[in-house]
Each structure stands twice: as structure tokens, then as C-alpha cells.
Amino acid sequence: MQDDHGYLWIATNTGANKFDPETERCTRYVHDPDNPNTLGGASVKSIAQDNRGSFWFGTEDSGLDKVDPRTGTFTHYRNDSDGQFVGRIIELIEDTHREIWFVGERGLFHLNQQTGHFPSCNQDWHQRRQCV
């Protein structure tokens, strides 16, 4: 994906790369098991930028990660509102209301950025209403 500044973000099996076409330099974002302020896992499957400028990474085996490019701070989202691991994240988007939605092997989720909770939108109708 291409961000607001023209950088190209590339999801790889070893992390994520940010390529600057003007300088032809690449910045790598990788998992370091000894540093919680890095990607939560090695393999990134999808990348999205939100309206606030943060980048979101859907991973193969460690859920959802967010990085604030101004501070370099990572936030990790692993378990849904029921405490279940979300699993592999296949795709993620920000909608027109600035809400983050993602889909993975366990279905569709909606992230409430204020609480950090994300209910699964695959249960019965009563629980699905929490997603909208």
C-alpha cells in the first residue's frame, strides 16, 4: 500500500518494509522477541493506514499490531472481547467513521479504539449489534 507521504509499505513473511521511492531506502519493521515495542510476530499479511496516521499490521500468528510513526510505539491486540486469540489476520480496513475492521481465520471483528476491545461479529444477532 502507498501511504500519505508516498512511501510504499510491503507485507512480507519476515515483517513489513517501508520503501521510500525518492531515496530508494527501505526501513524494516521486524519482530524481536526480547522487545515488546516491535511487531508481535514475524509474518505480516496486511497493512493499512488510519486517518490518524498510524499503521496497522495483520499478522499470520500474532493478531493485530498498530504502530504510531511519530513515537514508534507499538500496540498489540491479541485476544477478542471473550479472551480468545484472534488468530491470523487476513485483511484490515478503516471505514468512513474512522473505525478499524479486520477479518481473519475466526471471522470479522470491529475494534473499539477507545476500549481496546473487539467483539467477534460472527455470533448471534444480539452480539453482532455490538459491532456497529
Explain what you see.
- The chain has 132 residues and is mainly beta.
- The protein contains one helix and ten strands, in the order ββββββββββα.
- The strands form three sheets. It has a four-stranded antiparallel beta sheet, with no helix packed on it. Strands 1-2-3 form a three-stranded antiparallel beta sheet, with no helix packed on it.
- The protein is globular and about 45 Å long.
Oligomer: single chain
Q: Within the largest sheet, what's the order of strands?
A: 4-5-6-7
Distance between the termini: 26 Å
Low-confidence stretches: 125-129
The overall pLDDT, averaged over residues, is 89
Keywords:
10 strands, three-stranded antiparallel β-sheet, globular, mainly beta, four-stranded antiparallel β-sheet, 132 residues
Compose a concise summary of this entry:
With 132 residues, the protein is mainly beta.
